[in-house]
Structures
1.
Amino acid sequence: MIDLRSDTVTRPTPGMRAAMASAVVGDDVFGEDPTVQELERRIADLLGREAGLFVPSGTMANQIALQLHARHGDEVLVAEGAHCLWYESGAAAAIAGVQLVSVGLDGEVTPDQIRGALRPRVDWCPVTRALVLENTHNRAGGRVISPTICRAAVDSAHAAGLTVHVDGARLFNASVALGVPPREVAGEADTVSVCLSKGLGAPVGSVLVGTRDHVRDARRLRKRMGGGMRQVGVLAAAGLYALDHHVARLAEDHLAARGLAEGLTGCPGLSVVPPDTNIVLIDLRPDGSVDANAFANAARARGILLSVFGAFRLRAVTHLEVSIDDIRTAAGVLRELVRPVVA
């Protein structure tokens, strides 16, 4: 099988497994795991922040951030298609107790859109407390939001009295694509989260960074949500290995994604959104002749795994377990599958 469903399907490499096996560990709830502490320090330094907190998932990182920045009943603006709106099982309402409002287009949010979404300070409206941006943006096809656009959004939010969280699950992809340091992608947001188990290839974990006060409060929220872990240095070691060995190679994933898009360009019956990074969105002809589920099932039968992203949209994600030869094979199979539909 050529698995293009997500970059979360990657498995630890032999070198990563060796690093995990030899990790020095301690009880992280007591603050005694040196490998976790090193990972938190490294990520905080890379993003230009005071401190970091290792958490089990990006969803938990985002939900902690929402609770840091807003109170129950408050409203939070989120970039259109945000992960915390689409893919976190309603946790913003169920756990953080906040109302999310979508703003912007394709992951980009302008100062005017922020100002236009602010609630008046009257008793019958929720208080707008925060803004969440996402970079790269998953539902926009791994789109990179430029530092200039992010800076304008963050500055506008701060000027309006809002705090800002950046969901940087694939922030290192943005950094590599732009050729700039991760801290430049993170900008001046109040908190930032990065995922270790997507393109970086670690099995588990995200890191939330911010001020020391943010991280102090986040530790309590992590524990409350069941995220306090004990000898978790075995997982943090995988994250450290990924930082040392898997960041620069993200450019290979971006090249593979472009190769897949080029291989499908011009194919009758489908269109492709040119990728910025490692996500390729494939749109089928919306005339009812074939839907995304049927096409994905046909692709699976031919050994290609895709994600269904809408009634007529599919997603393919490249990663460290997908070779250029795999991409050529996948493109050929997908072109063959669409021909009978068009005919």
Note: The mean pLDDT is 96.
2.
Amino acid sequence: MTYCKDRRAFLLIDAPPDVRDVPTAVDWKTAGLTVHDTNGAAYFPRLKLPDPTNNFQLRIFAPCGAIAGLYARTDAARGVWKAPAGVEATLAGVQGMVYKLSDPENGALNPLGLNCLRIFPIYGAISWGARTLVGADAEASEWKYVSVRRMALFLEESLYRGTQWVVFEPNDEPLWAQIRLNIGAFMQSLFRQSAFQGKSPREAYFVKCDSETTTQDDINRGVVNILVGFAPLKPAEFVVIKIQQLAGQIET
């Protein structure tokens, strides 16, 4: 998990092979799973797919590969801010599960932050949950949902890479104004793609980079601090991320 956090990556965790029903799934998620972090999600149950290396006989597979493909497809079609769950979140090629979950069983696992994979008429195999490892209702984490956490990771990485040019610029108000302008344009482009909630930019996001975020002590240390807020779930209810860059360095 340290690897993922250092690289702003997201970890998909499979339940062990012996987790085959709801009681063992509950035990594993509440007591057996030692990884507990915002940058990951767990899925249950395992999948049945044809094995192309064995005459396409049905074989049991861990779900992480199918879920990674679902994430990639959803990102490309709708954006990283779209939850990879629901009737559009079909799992291509999946012909069954090792355990068929009912609605009440789904209702027991979802509040624990364990994402359920289901088989539905018409739609087939789909992902029916999108919570992080800290997505249990009891935790009330702002990083409860996969889409919110992955959106924040996407913004952090994009903004960090997009502001590396500041390193040799004077760390003063003209620089801060340019940072606000550049990041504001990026956030506005996402707003136009419906990445945030809110009818106006003011309700959807904000960018702050000034003498309050970057104090004289920060300037002396050669860093500039940027605060960016976005509204993933409700207008004007912001999740705030902080970007720090070197600035005012002397080029040698």
Note: Residues 165 and 247 are 9 Å apart (CA to CA).
3.
Amino acid sequence: MYLASAAVLVMELLKLIACVIGLAVQEGSVAAAVRTLRAEIPSRETLQMIVPSGIYAVQNNLLYTALSNLDAATYQVTYQVKILTTALFSVLMLGKHLTKMRWISLVMLLIGVAMVQTQGEAGDKALARTVTAAVAAVAEKAAVAATAPTQSRFVGISAVLTAAVLSGFAGCYFERVLKSYKTSMLVRNVQLGLFGTLFSLLAMLSTDGRAVWEGGLMQGWNGNTWLVVLNQAFGGLLVSVVVKYADSILKGFASSISIVLSSIIAAICLNFVPSAEFIVGATVVIAAGYLYSL
């Protein structure tokens, strides 16, 4: 078993490196990219990235706490509240106007995703597709911890609801920063990545420092581990593109549809048999997307 905290740190480093390389290509040379970073990094805008980076770090810990105190089905259903919190913060922070039909479609999306993800044993396997890299990596530990006598449902529910609220706030805050300035998205991701790497390093040292010292940063890694980390890293960069050119609500729709698509692929490639509940939920998700577009 690889260390979750180490995987998150490597993921942040990969995103940072990818953005620096992308900036060098965009600017035409490494020297030009360095000049741009020297001008942009020591700025007030960089400090603004502390907020989403710090929130994501707290969110990861809250989700682990939730997974350690709740069964998979309860966790999956409750965490979908982030769909509504994102919409709420879009209205409060970004001044978006959502029609009654769009609010209805968002509630439908919440219900549909919850139905897709609660399928007994299949729901447990889907868990790794629904959470951040840090939480996905420790899902197996959390499943064991959830059977412990110290499990607290109140703590679990409180943690997941708080994480849902933070998810909505951080997403809308990041969207506002991306769209409020003319700064290159690559530079913005470098700014975010610097703090993300710092917080990830601190988290790794505090939780797994001794294990890393004794067994190395990449103990337990294999090809599948690299696939997970690379997917999370470059998937995170794609999220920035979606938020920049669309918005946080549409990002939520994209994530929800990806859950449906990944389950369909699993049905084709991994002999996963969809339940009636899954089929109804997938239909509701698609219908919600259509209604939101009207």
Note: Confidence is low (pLDDT under 50) at residues 120-140, 142-148.
